[in-house]
Amino acid sequence: MLPEIIVPEYTQNRELSWLKFNERVLAEAADEAVPLMERLKFVAIFTSNLDEFFMIRVGSLYDLKHVNDSVDNRSGMTYSQQLDAVFAAVKPLYAKAEEVYLNIETKLRRHKISNLSTAELNASQKKFIEVYYKREIEPIISPQIVDSHHPFPHLRSKVIYAGALLKDSGRSFFGVVPVPQTLPEIVYLPGSTLKFVRTEEILLDHLESIFNMYDTAEKTLLCVTRNADINPNDEAFDINSDFRIKMQKLLSKRKRLDPVRLELSNDISDRSKNHFCHALKITEEQIYISKVPMKLGYVYSLYDKLSPAQKKVLEYKEFSPCRSPSVISGVSMFRQVSKHDILLSYPFESMKPFLDLVKEAAYDKDVISIKITIYRLAKRTKLVDYLCTAAENGKDVTVMIELRARFDEQNNIDWSERLEDAGCKIIYGFEDYKVHSKICLITRKEKTEVKYYVQVGTGNYNEKTAELYTDLSLMTANQIIGREANDFFKNMAVGNLEGSYTNLLVSPVSLKSTVLKLIDEEIAKGSEGRIRIKINSITDVDIMEKFKEASCSGVKIELMVRGICCILPDMPGRTENITVKSIVGRFLEHSRIYCFGKADEEIMYISSADFMTRNTERRVEVACRIFDSEVQKRIRHILDVVWSDNVKGRILQSDGNYTRIDSSKEPVNSQLVFLNEALVAEPQAIEVTRKIVKPLKQESK
Prior knowledge:
The structure is a single chain. The protein is of the alpha/beta class. Strands 14, 18, 19, 20, 21, 23, 24, 25, 26 and 27 form a 10-stranded mixed beta sheet that branches. Strands 10, 11, 12, 13, 15, 16, 17 and 22 form an 8-stranded mixed beta sheet that branches. α16 (about 510-525) packs parallel to α17 and α19 (about 630-645) packs antiparallel against α20. About 40% of the residues are buried.
C-alpha cells in the first residue's frame, strides 16, 4: 500500500505542464502573423521537443514505474497514471500538428516550395527519382523479413524504417527496410522551383520491388523512440576508471534502451499493430499516426535554397547580434570592466566582448589563471581556441566540464580531450551532481595586487545558441564577487560542495535556502512585499509552498515562466496574488532573474538555475547578486518589457490552461522591442568607439 501523500490544490503535474508548453510552441506554427518558413521551423521544434520528451521524461517514468509506482507530490498521480495521462494528452497534439503542418505545406506551394509525394511526380520527375533510387539507394539498403527463422530486428531509436505486411502461400509476415543514415533526408528535383521528395517516401514506394517475391498487403513508415534517460550512477564502474570511458559506454547503451513510442505514417491493421506491440513490448496507446514527417531536420537546409525574394516574404527579417553600447571596441576589456560592470543581453547583443576578454587574457602577460565551468559548447567554438592558447602560453587554465550534458555528451568528451591536450587542467565535476553553473574567473596581477575578473551568465558558453536564446552575461571586477568566485573554484577543485558564500548563491548548499529566506523577508512586508522572477521552469515543491505562503500574506508575485510551471495561480485563499506569464517567440526565452523587494530595497540576482528540484538540490548552480546600479536599471527594464508583452505573451489560468493577454492595449512584442533597441543603440556604440578609441590608445602608449 502506497503511503498517503497530501497534494496541494494549487500545483499540477510536471509532464502535463510541459506538454502545455509544447502546445504553445505549436501555436507559433499556427500563427498567421509568423512568416511561413518560420512557422514550418516551429513545427520542427515541436516535433524535436516531443522526441526528447518521450526519450527522457516518458523514459524516466517508465523506469520509475518498474522500481516503485509511487505518487507524484504535485498531482497525486502514480507513475503509471502519469504515463496514461501523457499518452492521452499527446494524441490531440498529433492531430493539431497534422492540421498545422498541412496548412503550412499548402501555403508554401503557392510560393513554389513543394514537398511532393511520389504519387504527385510527373513522368520526367519519376524518371529522375527512379535513376536516383537505382544509383544511390538500392545498392545500400538492407531489407529483412520477420518470420520464424528471421527474428524481429532491433529497431534503432529515431531511425525511419519502411515496413510492409507480406503474404506468400497463405502465410503472413513482415518486411522492414531501414532508411540508410548516409543518405540526405530529401532529394531535390531538377527545375527552377524548389521541389523535393523525402528519401523515406522513395523507399516506401519501392517496397513492392524490394520484396517482389511476395504480395504486399499493407505498408507504412515507422519510427521507434527509445528511452534515453541514462544515469551514470546506475552503472557499476571502477571508481578509478576514466570518466570519459564511462560516458562512452553509457552512450552505447542508450542506443538499445526500451521503446517508449512507435510512430506510423498511416493507420495499419489491428493484426499489424498487435504484432508491433508484442515485439516492442508497448501498448496500443503508445502508437501514434503521424502525417507530419517523423524527421524534420531538412527544414533548416531549405533556407539556403530560398531566393532573395522568397527570403523576404517567408523568413523573419535578418538580424545579427549587435555591438553592445556598454563596450568600446578596440579598447582593453580589462580596462573597461575595471571601470564598471558590463551586462550583455543575448541574442540582441553579441557574445564577442566576453570572447574578447578571454582572448585578451590568453595573451596578457599579467594574467595568472583562467577558470571556467562548461556545460554546453557549440560544434565550432572560439572559446576553446582561446583557452587552449592561454594554456599553451603558460597560464593556469582549469576547465570544469560536464560530460553528462544530455545529448551533448560526445561533443563535450571531444572538447575535453582537446583542452587536455593543450595543457588545460580538466575536472569532470561530481559523481552525484551535474555542474550546470556558468561562471568564469580570470586572475590577473596588477601592480602590487592580484585582481579578479568574473563573468557570470544565465546561459551556456555556446556561440551558436547565444544568437538564438535570450540570456544575460555579466562581466565584473567587483572584488567581493571575485573572492567568492575564487573560493567557488577552490571548493570545486577539492570536491567541496559545502562552501560558504554570501553574494554568490551556490546550489546545492545555499541557493535554495537563500531564496526561501528572501521570500520570507517579503512575507514579513505583507502587501508591501514584491517578488519578480524570470525563469524557465518551476517544479520545486518547497519554493512553490513558500510562494503560496507569500501570496496569502499579500505579497505580489510576478512569475515569467517559459516552460514547466507546476504552481497554479489565482486560486482564492492560496495563490490569488500570483500571476504567471509565458513567452514563446522568435528566440528561446532562457534568462533567469530573481528579484525580491521594491525600489532601493530590491535584491537582484541573475542565475543559471531554474526553480526545479534537480537545479536546487542535485546540481551545482550559481546565482550572482547584481550591485551595479546601471545594470540593475537595465534588468528592471528587461523585466518590465517582458511583463508587458501582449503579442507573444500568454497568461496561465488556475485550471492549467494558457490564454492570450488582453491585446486591446498597444501591442508589445518584447523580443521585437529589444531587437529594435539594439539596432538603434549599435550606431551610437560605433560612434562612441570612433570618438574615444583613438585618444584612449594614445593615452595607453
